[in-house]
Write a structure and sequence with these properties.
The protein is α/β, with parallel strands linked by helices and about 400 residues long. The protein folds into two domains: about 160 residues, Aspartate Aminotransferase, domain 1 (Alpha-Beta Complex), CATH 3.90.1150; about 240 residues, Aspartate Aminotransferase, domain 2 (3-Layer(aba) Sandwich), CATH 3.40.640. The protein is built from 13 helices and 14 strands. The strands form three sheets. It has a seven-stranded mixed sheet, with helices on both faces. Strands 1-2-3-12 form a four-stranded mixed sheet. Strands 11-14-13 form a three-stranded antiparallel sheet. Helix 4 packs parallel to helix 5 and helix 11 packs parallel to helix 13. The longest helix is centred in the C-terminal third of the chain and has 22 residues. The protein is globular. The N and C termini lie far apart (about 45 Å).
């Protein structure tokens, strides 16, 4: 019983909230997919508004056909890691395509975006001579990479270059390697980092900058290269990490850099060396999606038009929004109980969004997190805005 005692209090709270809401918000099964923005859940068709499918490419014909062809040509899986027998021509080709698209000289493909950060950080930084500085709101995979490295990890205030500057200034003089980790767009609230300023502060102190553009790749910049492209510092980022599971509509991740030493990670990064490589279908789908991203700017334009419509509607409804306009729109609720009930209300009204509650959210905030897609139609957004309008009326009535 000793192993499980630590879960008891959380389990009691979770079960009580789940019972009050009427269903489990963390166990929803998409029983049948009806395209990139619709699914059948419990016999009812709902609009998917919490998928991170920013460019809507999960049903793109080129990506689907490429995945089918890859299965026929190369099988369903590699049965080995990149370090062993798991590197196929497709993996190398995708690395070259990503490097060329981003303007970097080197790129490594990992099995997931999570492992890209885990593998890069844990291999780059080693105790006791190295140190990591991390934005307080960074994703769990970045925190886990820090922990796996065993190096001293120092948090700086979220999106605060001055806080980073102070912490770098206070480091011991015997520290050799310094790695600063932050994100382009943060997945929970949708807030965007001051990337240019953070990179400049890192370099001022002789530190390397690792930027995770998982949620901003394909979304920001004139060509979809992320917030660092928008801010004009793409070539100044030392290590650029990303994922295939958002804009590239597949599974996998990557690290890109102009530092030739990135290649050393191929024989020193444990998550790269000891995890089965991405399947041929996943790699082919990501490659086809990347080609679409490069060749069709209209998807990103539609994404931002959809984001603007939803964000403006939520502002007019008086919701407490967590960040300025972006494709991630988070509505702040008063507490976990209210958030559970609100999430269930949206489901009953045909809309699926993400429920996020403490301790997995910044500042112990309870939110309904919506992610807009370029594939959302006007009808989809009508349903979304209509459901939130009804939710606003219910919340206002309960408050009076």
């Amino acid at each position: 019983m000793g192993l499980f005692e630590k879960f008891r209090a959380t389990a009691v709270t979770y079960e009580a909230l789940k019972e009050s809401a009427g269903r489990d918000p963390f166990g929803v099964s998409m029983d049948e997919m009806k395209g990139p923005t619709r699914a059948m859940v419990e016999g009812k068709e709902i609009v998917l508004a919490g998928t991170n499918n920013y460019l809507g490419l999960t049903y793109d014909k080129d990506a689907v056909d490429a995945a089918k062809d890859a299965v026929v040509a190369s099988g369903t899986g590699t049965t080995g890691s990149r370090f062993a027998n798991g590197t196929y021509a497709g993996h190398r080709n995708l690395e070259h395509e990503l490097a060329e698209f981003l303007g970097y000289k080197h790129c490594m493909v990992f099995s997931t975006g999570y492992q890209a950060n885990l593998g890069a950080i844990s291999a780059l930084v080693q105790p006791p001579e190295d140190v990591i500085l991390i934005d307080a709101d960074c994703h769990a995979c970045i925190y886990d990479g820090c922990q796996l490295s065993g190096a001293e990890t120092i948090r700086f205030r979220h999106n605060d270059p001055e806080s980073l500057d102070k912490r770098l200034s206070r480091l011991r003089p015997d520290i050799k390697g310094k790695l600063v980790c932050f994100e382009g767009m943060y997945s929970m609230f949708g807030d965007v980092a001051p990337v240019k300023e953070l990179v400049e502060v890192a370099h001022k102190h002789g530190a390397y900058a690792l930027l995770d553009e998982a949620h901003s790749f394909g979304v920001f910049g004139d060509n979809g290269r992320g917030v660092c492209e928008r801010d004009g510092v793409l070539d100044a980022v030392d290590f650029y990490t990303g994922t295939f599971s958002k804009s590239l509509a597949s599974i996998g991740g990557f690290v890109a850099s102009n530092h030739p030493e990135l290649e050393y990670l191929r024989f020193s990064s444990r998550p790269y060396m000891f995890t089965a490589s991405p399947s041929p279908a996943n790699v082919a789908a990501a490659s086809a999606a990347l080609a679409r991203l490069k060749g069709d700017q209209s998807m990103r334009k539609q994404l931002w038009e959809n984001a603007h419509r939803v964000y403006s509607a939520f502002q007019q409804l008086g919701f407490d929004l967590c960040a300025p306009e972006s494709p991630v729109i988070a509505v702040k609720l008063d507490n976990r109980e209210q958030a559970f009930l609100a999430w269930n209300f949206l489901m009953e009204n045909g809309v699926y969004v993400n429920l996020a509650i403490p301790p997995g959210t910044p500042n112990a905030t309870s939110i309904l997190r919506l992610s807009v897609s370029a594939a959302h139609t006007a009808d989809d957004l009508d349903i979304v805005v209509g459901a939130y309008t009804a939710l606003s009326e219910q919340l206002n009535a309960a408050a009076t």
